[in-house]
Write a structure and sequence with these properties.
There is one protein chain. The chain has a single domain, classed as Spore Coat Polysaccharide Biosynthesis Protein SpsA, Chain A (Alpha-Beta Complex), CATH 3.90.550.10. The protein is built from seven helices and eleven strands. The strands form three sheets. The chain has a seven-stranded mixed β-sheet, sandwiched between helices. It has a two-stranded antiparallel ribbon with strand order 2-3. Strand 8 and strand 9 form a beta hairpin. The relative contact order is 0.17.
Length: 228
């Protein structure tokens, strides 16, 4: 089983959450959201290092919070980029291992089992995704076309990739000045290679808006009740 570098994207600045601190610092059950992710990842033997790209002004704060907890996996906080894509690129440059897992600091409910299932997947490049249960149309102010939802997928993280291949795709995108919202679409654009889609989870939400925080608290309370 290969070893992995884990890139935890922590670039949020709280704009959509309508707060003046990064949303990954918000508390969930008394802990910063991103700490919930680190506590799970720290238990996975194949993950040998954790790299956290974050805004320059919050590197020290992120390190201070991490120091309040006990983690055995080496963790490096680095200055992220001006975009999500650039932050991933910087993380890939820093990564020491040839396989990487990419996750978001504000997805605290990805389970240890989901991380392990991703690692055990034979394909070097794999993501999580969900079917889209609603109608999706093309257009902004007017409808411009229909999309077949049966042919679409709602992309979730974590993702895993072969580092050199993804890094090369990132370098191509930088040269071409193309921006992508996540890395599976970036890799596919340049390689059209097979990327496995694993069945995601409804509770693996991304906390970006105030309503998401309320939903996250409800999910956490329900998970505690299930454990009891």
């Amino acid at each position: 089983m290969p070893n992995y570098s884990f890139i935890l994207l922590s670039g949020g600045i709280g704009k959509r959450m309508e707060i003046n601190i990064p949303k990954q610092f918000l508390l969930l059950a008394g802990k910063p959201i991103f700490i919930h992710v680190l506590e799970k990842v720290d238990l996975i033997e194949e993950i040998k290092e954790i790299i956290i790209p974050c805004p320059k002004e919050f590197v020290c704060k992120t390190q201070e919070i991490i120091h309040d907890y006990s983690f055995s996996t080496p963790i490096s906080c680095i200055e992220g980029g001006s975009s999500r894509q650039e932050s991933v690129y910087k993380g890939l440059l820093r990564a020491a291992y040839e396989h990487v897992i990419i996750h978001e600091a504000v997805r605290p409910f990805a389970s240890i089992e989901e991380f392990r299932r991703l690692i055990l997947e034979n394909n070097e490049n794999a993501i999580y995704g969900l079917d889209i249960p609603f109608t999706v149309l093309q257009g902004k102010s007017v409808i411009e076309g229909n999309l077949e939802r049966d042919e679409l997928v709602n992309v979730q993280l974590p993702h895993k990739f072969q580092r050199k291949k993804l890094l090369y795709a990132h370098e191509c995108a930088r040269e071409d000045r193309l921006e992508f919202t996540e890395d599976a679409s970036l890799l596919f654009h340049y390689f059209q290679s097979e990327i496995t889609i694993l069945k995601g989870s409804e509770v693996n939400i991304k906390i970006t808006k105030p309503i998401d925080r309320k939903i996250a608290e409800a999910i956490y309370k329900e998970s505690i009740l299930m454990e009891d």
